[in-house]
Amino acid sequence: MPTLRWLTRDEDIRAAAHVPYRLLEEVPDLGHGDRDSGNMLIQGDNLDALKALLPFYAGQVRCIYIDPPYNTRSAFEHYDDNLEHSQWLAMIWPRLELLRELLAEDGSIWVSIDDNEGHYLKVVMDEVFGRRNFIANVIWQKIYTVKNSARFLSDMHDHIFVYARNAHAWERNLLPRSEELNASYTNPDDDPRGPWTTNAVQARNFYSLGTYEIVSPAGVAFTPPAGTYWRVSETNFKELDADGRVWWGKDGRSIPRIKRYLSEVKQGVVPATMWFHQDAGQNAQAKAEVRSLLSEADDVFLTPKPEKLIERVLHISTNPGDLVLDSFLGSGTTAAVAHKMGRRYIGIEMGDHAETHCQPRLTKVVDGEQGGISKAVNWLGGGGFRYYRLGPSVFDETGQIRPDIEFPVLAAHVWFSETRQPWSRPYPLSPVLGVHDGRAYALLYNGILGDKSISGGNVLTRKTLAVIRAALPDGFAGPVTVYGERSALSDTTLAAEQISFKQTPYDVKARG
Question: What share of the chain is helix, strand, coil (3-state, %, to 5)?
């Protein structure tokens, strides 16, 4: 497969592995509503934040939507959007790699972009996600009036590149049918099966059984028009006619057409790749939505996305309760829409306006604001979110764990480094982290056994091994990997007990 080369490519494709694992520190005063709703707003650089999420959310996100800087050579207040081409690629590559790891096997990623970097982004995403997992290039009509000031052609659209984590596992939802579509179905003959429309019985594709003569109830004979064939056999046509599924016109003299009933069509519409402003919103509408909620946002977000656009993305790609991630949260639109649609979300935004813009907007959503899609989805308020900032790294400059790290944090990193799976924190906590592929993992750290003494807490002894054995699932008799400060058991005992011992902090590495 062709690959894209740029000046710093070799170091950029390794950048994600060198990002430190940092702590996420909650700021309770900036959360709002039900803090246990599973929603997170994170302030900080998204590369660090994405790496911090891996041990807890790898493979858990059903839909990722991002709207990264477009590299338009226009100065944004909160983004340096005037990047050289290679710098832009250096920025986007490691973030896409981490986003891929967070995406569920049946998940999808949607990336808004324009023509400045869009075609290069397509090649990069082919490489990161696999060309076989490319789903579509959606064209969104962001502006609906021609700019007469345009030097060449008036730019009226953005791209949204859609990739699946695994195209064989991903399934899209249908869009709801519009009243306009349903209005084309009528019932002039009072058919008991309800409203219907018709399809032509002739087609241009050759069909060996489609050359017979049809006679209408009024005695008019029909053969297929020149260059066409009946699309059903004579036997099937007679069965349809006997079942009242053929329309001959009001006088019974028209060329037949086959009825299609509204009750029998799909209860939705297959999504297309052309999204017009009346269906998915446009830039002016998005700016009005943000300004109605955040009066101080007049000049901050020049190109926000309308709630209708994100609603369509999430409707196609998620179901209620699914986890949505936006690591370029901007004005908070993705999180606001996910909240109103009953999806869980993680939003990441750098700079002070995570606190001054995103947090107030989501607070208003929780309190039941009625802008954007609120009325369309019957949003009345509820739920809540937690607010986080990036803290220090889990590991020091030598790659070893910091001594003040709490048990759940280190447990998540141990589990992720061994299994590459996120750790689901059990309650109550125990030294056994879980079982994966027939092997159990345990951690003796930070007084998890209620005894912080050297002899009784973090050292593998007969006593602590008995506690570990008691916490294992019933009937488990497989090998166990135990992390601890040291082992007081002999190599012979470890082998007999199927124990693989790893020492903390030396065997817990800052793995990429």
Answer: 30, 20, 50
Between the alpha carbon of residue 93 and those of residues 8, 88, 97, the distances in Å are: 11, 9, 6
- Judge residue 63's burial from the number of C-beta atoms within 10 Å of its C-beta, 0-12 exposed, 13-18 middle, 19 or more buried: buried
The pLDDT assigned to 75 comes to 39
Residues 305 and 65: their CA atoms lie apart, in Å, by 11
Q: Which residues pair with 435 in a beta bridge?
A: 440
Q: What is the mean pLDDT of each run of 10 residues along the chain (512 residues)?
A: 87 92 91 94 96 91 94 55 78 96 97 94 97 98 93 95 98 90 91 95 94 94 95 96 94 93 88 95 87 66 85 98 96 97 97 90 97 96 95 79 82 88 82 94 78 62 91 93 90 94 72 46
- 13, two tokens: 């494709």
Q: Which residues of 151-164 are buried (b: 16+ CB within 10 A; e: fewer)?
A: eeeeebbbbbbbbb
pTM above 0.85, yes or no: no
Residue holding tokens 């901050």? 300
- DSSP H or E segment with residue 126: helix 118-129
What's the pLDDT tens digit per position in 7-30?
Answer: 899 999 999 988 988 888 899 999
Q: Could you give the CA distance from residue 374 to residue 450 in angstroms, rounded to a whole number?
A: 49
Extended beta strands in 93-192, E state: 103-113, 134-141, 157-164
Interatomic CA distance for residues 405 and 395, integer angstroms: 9
Q: Are 444 and 485 in contact, with CB atoms under 8 Å apart?
A: yes
Domain ranges of the chain: 9-116+292-393, 179-264, 407-503
Q: How far apart are the C-alpha atoms of 421 and 408, rounded to whole Å? A: 15
Classify strands 480-484 and 439-443 as parallel, antiparallel or unpaired: parallel
Q: Which CATH superfamily is domain 9-116+292-393 in?
A: Vaccinia Virus protein VP39 (3.40.50.150)
- Cα gap 491→493, rounded to integer Å: 5
Q: Which helix (H) or strand (E) holds 54?
A: helix 46-57
Provide the H-helix boundaries in 318-356: 333-340, 353
Cα angle vertex 351, ends 350, 357, to 5°?
Answer: 95
The DSSP 8-state label assigned to residue 273 in this structure reads: S
CA dihedral 344→350→353→357, nearest 10 degrees, is -20
pLDDT score for 512: 45
